[in-house]
Amino acid sequence: MEPYAARIKDVLERRAKAGRFAPGVAAYSDSDMFKKSPSPDLPKAKRWDDHFTEECKGRKQCVLKQAAKHLNTPGLISLGGGLPSPSYFPFSSLSLSVPTPPDFSSSATAGSSPLRTITIGKNDIAEGKGEYDLAVALNYGQVTGSAQMLRFVTEITEILFAPPYADWGCAQTTGSTGVLETAARMFTERARGDKVLMEEYTYSTAQETMEALGIEVVGVRMDGQGMVPGDLRGTLEGWDVGARGRKPHVLYTVPTGQNPTGATLTPERRREIYDICEEHDIFIIEDDPYYLLQMAPYPPASSPPPAETSSLPSYLSSLPGTFLGIDTSGRVLRLDSFSKVLAPGSRMGWVTASAQVIDRFLRHGESSQGPSGFSQAALHTLLDRTWGHEGFLAWLANLGGEYTGRRNVLLGACGEFLPGVATWDAPSAGMFLWIKLDHTKHPRLADGILAIEDEIFHSCIARGVLVARGSWFRAASDGSEPQALFFRATYAMAGADAIREATRRFGAAVRESFGIKEE
Amino acid sequence: MEPYAARIKDVLERRAKAGRFAPGVAAYSDSDMFKKSPSPDLPKAKRWDDHFTEECKGRKQCVLKQAAKHLNTPGLISLGGGLPSPSYFPFSSLSLSVPTPPDFSSSATAGSSPLRTITIGKNDIAEGKGEYDLAVALNYGQVTGSAQMLRFVTEITEILFAPPYADWGCAQTTGSTGVLETAARMFTERARGDKVLMEEYTYSTAQETMEALGIEVVGVRMDGQGMVPGDLRGTLEGWDVGARGRKPHVLYTVPTGQNPTGATLTPERRREIYDICEEHDIFIIEDDPYYLLQMAPYPPASSPPPAETSSLPSYLSSLPGTFLGIDTSGRVLRLDSFSKVLAPGSRMGWVTASAQVIDRFLRHGESSQGPSGFSQAALHTLLDRTWGHEGFLAWLANLGGEYTGRRNVLLGACGEFLPGVATWDAPSAGMFLWIKLDHTKHPRLADGILAIEDEIFHSCIARGVLVARGSWFRAASDGSEPQALFFRATYAMAGADAIREATRRFGAAVRESFGIKEE
């Protein structure tokens, strides 16, 4: 709790000193406007020119956005930009009905407790009612989104991750999946024979993004604690350029509550992997959407299990740390997202990296025009105007408690309904359980793992349960067969009764396929 | 009016027959679900395989989204997808304060007339209160956005454009600028030496997008009515493959109220250009964000000028037609946007093209995850639940009246304050006035057009007016000097008094540079 509380205090003091902050339409902003001034003993980030692609290096700034710098001239009237007048936006105000701390119980979220109505108007800035309004949010903006929301995410980054180098910064995004494509195009190109290192089972869209661009994916072995550093080292040290082409210079990793395995790197592993990347000059793309979704230990320490809601101190002490938090070289592009902790439909997130990498990232994004103004208006009104930084963290703590309850139901159901060929590790973060089935016990082993997986998957559908096939997540551009049999289950969506029933059905499908009699 | 009214009636009858339409989270949808069944005599679109890039042809469907098809199985419980539970979205309802027809006067939009509060709740579908809700809008969705909003834009496309071939369809976008990059990657690649034909002055971001991808831009001459068909024909017929490389196979055009020239193609020119594209097998990217922003003729027919609000019949009769509306081969990818007619911050628009092109477009978009759910919820609640199709068209008619008033102020001020070296055509659509200065009359002509432009631009800034430099918009990858001197002014943002004062300042800067004495 301690460092977080001190950093929140810092942020609030800086805000108080800075006074009212209400920049107008398409105002320029960067994280340096909001960060704590870096202490002089912090290192500066390395330069990544030799990692960037030709496309990345050639990206120019949008000529029309450069002209926007003149808009700060006092008394200037603009006939320059193609911005519509906010007087013609048919939205005078936007209101949301939301829960407020400390009443973050699930009944409040579901709407049965009293909620608070919060509102952002079209002209709140001019009318002195707020620091952001619809006239600004709903007009064109900068690629990095509004200055108002960039301030909030920069502050949250400082509070939660405290990057240990001087020239870091943030940029808002329209969600992390889109960032993957941008990052791929910044760092890898087919013509150079580039490859990307990934966990051997990982987010399938990350692989699909790379493969669509002609970039080969190289899987690194995992165990219950995620990527195995020794295998990463072995892959890099034993790399045969003659046989395999250019050595990889980019690592893509989902370090916390990983999709699909649910694994979370220990601080020791994270440090070891970072050091290997330093040694081999690997740039790290840290895709960490589940980081803020932390759960209590399993099995529960006390019986009956702890209350559904987690306290803020225990939540904060459960945060396992990040690559960004140990990144003294500025070699990490970290991806954060509001999708898993507020709502995926916000299509809002942010990246954190060195100033050079952020600058290049924004040039790639010139055509995206930043996140939706409705999303920014909604999230700013909730997070900045209503909850505040500590309120947001309290929300996350409560959410972690809710997920703990759901996860415990699924783990309990697996213990009850799955036969002995099934094994799993209890996840401490995220929304996924990775279930291994011992294929060596399967009567039709000779048909191959994919055939068995296919049979069980369709048997599950026929019994009324959808689970995700392990092979969907396998990072292997070489087309080789998987060596083990996995299914991924999530406890994020279904209610407790449905989770138990679904697990029972899955167990029945597994038993039938393996020829295991009901006990 | 007539064809539009009949098509609206068709749409409403189809809706009544279909009954309640309230699909759930991430439901699959396509325009065929909402279109009028095509009559059997309509042609089918051509196939564009030989126009697509390798990347485009290689794009696969997202494996996780393919699994979503099983979600329709009755009684199925999903532990498969990584969708968070809507019970944890901290938004129970979203309300907007909006004007409603027929009270679309500027005072209503500005908030001084009574407005209506419209609301979308989290569980409106389950509670029978609506066909869309926050539980669906704020969760993950399909690339094409929600089925509910796809229905609305498909219907508007049918009502306004009535594509004359059978297998057209729409997909939602996060705004047209992002689409440009996708379209560029679908149709052009550096390795093939591809080039794109464009108006010789055009949207600078379109050029920047192409150049960032290593695609050469080939300008086609324009006059007051837009692209000159004869120059397009001459460019294509005289193309020397030996000297210039591969002949262009893509035309990018902004046909209505063009940015920056304000020009609108006549129906005859549009037809002529389409026929040239048929002959030379050119695929057309029709970027038409100003189409719905139509203004009354200038000078005003009556004195005093007509009332600010336009009638719906006169608005509809002013619509000049589109490439999509004459596209019998399915060779048009049309881009529409809500940015200019509702709010740019919505980051919402849609494309219309043949089923094959839409399919490829969606595969490129797998990583975008579609438009913001807040934007979709807001626009659906306004457009579908409140205004309806005819209400939306009435809003557009009113908006055209408002822009007519502003444009007339700017044109009046130009007549009053600009010296005789300045000439212009009155735009009938969009938000831009393109002002030509006769550089041959300039005392320092020998310095070159760019130097004169630079001098006037900075003199304008010093006098307190921002205008856009013509050279910013020039489509010429060859780096040649422009042959004429232009500035672009917009009447979209500033009020009447500010427009007059800004024009006076611009006129003073021009006079000084040209050495013209005040009259």
UniProtKB/TrEMBL annotation, chains A, B:
Which residue intervals define the domain Aminotransferase class I/classII large in the entry? 173-503
The answer, when asked if Transferase is one of the entry's keywords, is yes
Tell me the cofactors it needs: pyridoxal 5'-phosphate
A GO molecular function term, named singly, is: 2-aminoadipate transaminase activity
The UniProt keyword set, sorted, is:
Aminotransferase, Pyridoxal phosphate, Transferase
Stored InterPro entries: Aminotransferase_I/II_large (IPR004839), Class-I_PLP-dep_aminotransf (IPR050859), PyrdxlP-dep_Trfase (IPR015424), PyrdxlP-dep_Trfase_major (IPR015421)
Matches recorded under SUPFAM superfamilies: PLP-dependent transferases
UniProt-listed GO biological process terms: aromatic amino acid family catabolic process; lysine biosynthetic process via aminoadipic acid; tyrosine biosynthetic process
Domain of life of the organism in this record? Eukaryota
> Which family is it part of?
Belongs to the class-I pyridoxal-phosphate-dependent aminotransferase family.
- The name under which this protein is listed is Related to ARO8 - aromatic amino acid aminotransferase I
* Species annotation: Cephalotrichum gorgonifer
